[in-house]
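Async update (no meeting this week)

Hi team, since we skipped the sync, here's where things stand on the single-chain job. The sequence we agreed to prioritize is pasted below, unchanged from the tracker. I ran it this morning and attached the output directly underneath so nobody has to dig for it. Comments welcome in thread, and please keep replies under the output.
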Amino acid sequence: MSEASQALRRAAIFPLLAIVFAVYLATLQSGHHWGDDFADYLHHARNLIDGHSYADTGLIENPQVRNLGPRYFPPGFPALLAPTLALFGFNYTALKIEVAVLFVLGLWLMYGLFRDRLNDWQALAAIALIGLNPVLWEMRNDIVSDLPFLTATYGSLYLMHWLYTRHAGNPPAIWGIAAGLSIYSAYAIRQPGLMLIPAMLCFELLRARRLRPFSLVATAVAGTAMLAQRLILGSDGRSTLFDFSPRWLVSSITQNLRASDEFWNNAWSPAAAKLVFLAALALMVCGLWAALRSGIRIYDLFALFYVLLIVPYPYVTVRYLLPIVPVQMVYLALGFELAVSRVPRKAAAVAAACALLSALASYGSQYAAAATGPIREGVSDPDFVALCEYARASTPPGSRFVIRKPRVFTLLADRPAATYGPSEEPEDLRAFIQAIHASYLVWGDPPAIDFDTDLITLQRFINQDGDHLTLIYWNSHYRLYRIS
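Output:
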């Protein structure tokens, strides 16, 4: 292969990245869904801009609701959002575009990282499967840290891989500072970035049978930054949630395997989706075997340690699987190459055509079935915005509220708020309201499923304690009560 031909193939990554970015940009929906992690990120970013206490978002914790979110999110993603927020305010579209830009940057870094194992065409195919995967594409409308975390994590892995390659497997200790800062950059966005440290140390031990100055310096720098963050902000409360019981570990592994098939869904045929998933899984296993034979890479170890982290975590969601998807796509490409190398050329061409059609059917069906146009049921709902504006204008600063979506409410209404347990009995909710000295209660019945518990738990409380509640504001979907 001539150098010009090879350069042309490597340059093909840029049109592919442009296509991915164009797809994300062209399909952005205005507004934002009800999922309110984004509200904490924006509240943290606003605190950074205004010079307020970073972790003070106004959220009042309810011990009965463990899965609402941590006490605070790490500062990396809010720091990235702060300039855009300062320039455009709560312009969700501008903030989503920033996330898309960061993700495309991450894809470019992945391409550079994976080309040590994949040829140019395989690497391009892997990046296309990652960048256009419907699960990741669906996140284009969420201002959350998952996609930026991929960029920071694989950027750190790329830097360490480049250093090991450039310096014949033994980078100078001074470069450990850069590696440590890159590891912390991932941790500062999401705490599972911590798994980059054991991946690096294990990689060192496998290569040199000892820890050398580079890895020790990187660990010291990253660890110092992580400790400083912990001392400044305190614990976020999630370290107490892990469940190492055998029963949960088996259940978690089973649930995570089931969640993995979402990356290969087919909106037209669930049966076809299962077949594609099983075929992809088989190829990934073959690719893993081929990868281990060719020598372990640092990103193999990161994927392993990341899996060991999420299995004992008590909540299973497809979002938590995103950081290992890029490595899985590498294994998929290697497994496919191994499979077609053992059949005649014509059969290999047929297999390649079938794989392409399967990917097109899987991805295309989900794109075709996806919602378009503005997000109608979300935080931009005019009734919810009106409720927040009334609360901001007509209630005393510092007044405490109980509402189903407290994090969004504290962001838009600038009032402290708590949620309630979805199955709390009226007497328990009454005790909680008294304990936090809440002055207002919000009941809602928008079409969104998020508020279904208002129609049951909260309505039951209102029916029993109506004598202590005064309706002071209402619109089509919300009622605001003053608690006496």
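Quick observations from my side:
The chain has a mean pLDDT of 91.
The first helix runs from residue 3 to 11.
Reply here if anything looks off.
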